[in-house]
Amino acid sequence: MAKLLIIDDERGIRNTLREILTDEGHEVEVAENGKQGLEMAQAKTFDLIYSDIKMPEMDGLEVLKALKNSEKDENGDATLNGETPIVMISGHGDVETAVQALKAGAYDFLIKPLDLNRILITTKNALESKSLKQETKQLRKKVADHGPRMIGKSAAIARVREIIDKVAPTEARVLITGPNGTGKEVVAHLIHEQSTRANGPMVEVNCAAIPSELIESELFGHMKGSFTGAIKDRAGKFEQADGGTLFLDEIGDMSLAAQTKVLRALQESEITRVGSDKPIKVNVRVLAATNKDLQKEIAEGNFREDLFHRLNVIPIAVPPLKDRLEDIPLLVEHFTGRICNEQGIAPKTFDEDAIKALQSREWTGNIRQLRNVIERLIILAGPQITAEDVNMYA
Fold it and tell me: Which domains does the chain have, with CATH numbers?
């Protein structure tokens, strides 16, 4: 049920709109002039406002402009450029007034006499528009809150940060190595975000998750009919990343055939779709990551040495958790806050002995394993997590 406000000096219009919109299941309040309507809108949050334009004391355009500069959020705090849609009503359908209203931030402009279907459609669309804006705002906040962060003050992490700061603004290719769960993808995202390509796309490919027979199509795209199931032309990841960054995760698992094509793409800055002989120019910065020893893979004939040298312009070795145990208290604090927020759980704390117990363990799964253990402890243990809890649940 939405909360609506009708501002109109004509009693008949107010009552008709209230009746129509109440029948649709909405909670409707009315104001008989612009001044009263503005006071009501500033004192309470509404999901949609209908306002007449020609009214005594304060006309609808003044109300609109005042609301757009002092709208309330869900906590009752004033906020500029609020998301509550405002639909203007006028008995004079002149274009100039409509343009003024829309420029001032009105969602729509209706002309009297009001059409029932138009009112219902406008109400539905305006409420959906507000809902979408709120969802987008929440998603953006969630993305910002969950964006890549490198937690820790250890010397090992400080060295990684130093390299990132130096290499990010350049166009140099980077090969990120380290065991599973250490945060190689976080390093890749930080490089992209600090680069001159930050406004471009960041496209990720998990080479280990794609069957070898599909990896070329995934990377370079394909033409309709080039193989069974190719029902239309499709751009590959290189094309999708044009102007931005392509992150090839677990590149040590890529087939030799695909490696050859990747090498050619890096050398010539162009790719060819599967089933086509037409080259396509691409402007892509490639970052790669692997948990494998590529020198060993080269010796065993599983990885091309020339591709390795193309990718390994700047090597970054992400340390395992066992080499940065002093970072565990900060990691625990970070993950605890995030997990409690995600799970809707009251904030919990780890006592000193619990932290020491965590530092004494072997973390073969590294940061990923630590996060999973923290989540398990938050769900299963009490408000203050102890060493006994760690020994029981970790």
Answer: 3-142 (3.40.50.2300), 155-319 (3.40.50.300), 323-393 (1.10.8.60)
C-alpha to C-alpha distance for 320 and 21, rounded to whole angstroms: 61
For residue range 165-199, list pLDDT tens digits in order. 999 999 999 999 999 999 999 999 999 999 999 99
Task: Name every residue whose Cβ is closer than 8 Å to that of residue 353 and which is 6 or more positions away in sequence.
Answer: 386, 387
Is the CB of residue 185 less than 8 Å from the CB of residue 149?
A: no
Nearest to 311, CA basis, from 358, 228, 250: 250
Contact present, 220 and 236 (Cβ < 8 Å): yes
- Amino acid, res. 125: N
The token pair at 240 is 């999708």
Residues 309 and 311: their CA atoms lie apart, in Å, by 5
Q: 48: part of which helix (H) or strand (E)?
A: strand 48-52
Q: How big, in percent rounded to 5, are the helix, strand and coil portions of the chain?
A: 50, 15, 35
Residues 6+ apart with CB under 8 A from 155: none
E strand or H helix that includes residue 246: strand 245-249
Q: Quote the pLDDT of residue 78.
A: 37
Tell me the whole-structure pTM to 2 decimals. Answer: 0.65
Tokens of 246: 């392509």
Strands 71-72 and 78-79: antiparallel
